[in-house]
Design goal:
Arc Repressor Mutant, subunit A; alpha/beta; D-Maltodextrin-Binding Protein, domain 2; elongated
Amino acid sequence: MEIRQLRQFAAVADTLHFGRAAQRLNMTQPPLSQSIQALERELGSALFIRTKRSVSLSPFGIAWLAHVRVALAGVDALPETAHRLITGTAGRLSLSFVSTADYSLLPLLVRHFSTLYPEVEITLTEATSDVQITLLQEGSAHAGIIIAPKDEALPAVLTYRRLLREKLVAAVPEDWITTGRLFPGAHGLAPQQVIEAPLIIFPQPMAPSFYDLVLGYYRAHGAEPRIAQPAIQMQTIISLVSAGLGLALVPASLRHLARTGVRYLDLQGDAPVLETGLAWRRDETAPVLARLLDVAADIQHSSL
């Protein structure tokens, strides 16, 4: 069975006349009749009821015609589909992200991208930066939103673009304030109050850059953190804060994660700044990635 035969069948079905259908197809009637007969033999059933005066569709021909029209429409759309795939306006984009991005970069990036390229299917995977780097090296994701690597220490096969820099704030149990355990000043929480409290934080191996940023804050004030509990998801960290197990230093965008029993406080003085950006393979040529990088560049220059 060939596409040509399907178009011939549709032409005869439209005209119910082999002569007029042949004219539409720019061919003579005998080859058209022979082609339709060959198609009927292959299908094992007649497509048309023929008399000396008329041609009509058989019950099978009527039922099959709808499927043929769908198939032909799909074939006709293939060149445009190919163009969209080549230009990255259709296809599939695999994007991984750290949990902190869920409250800052991710919604903005996905919303803008989906608005511009609605025919691209986005597959999202939440993972820590170390896991994402492995995925990217393996080619299992097109790009990843990661916390900036320390000293730009990415594997040579990857490249990185900064998208967002934001100060850390303290997420503290609400009852620490209501009971008087903490006395935040007008300009936020004093360093001494931070370093004296138990800390909830990402494990160092899974988020080394974030861990080192927090550790640097403590050491800048002559202290080492007293880690009460490590946790690998930002939502879990905030839940543990609400349970009163300790405080956490988190990106300012986490204020969007409202949780009963948690208060977000600015840090007095120079607060640490967390950088988040996009990483991808240098040799990745997927057109959808090029479109994502265009959108990311727009976001980078917007006021986040």
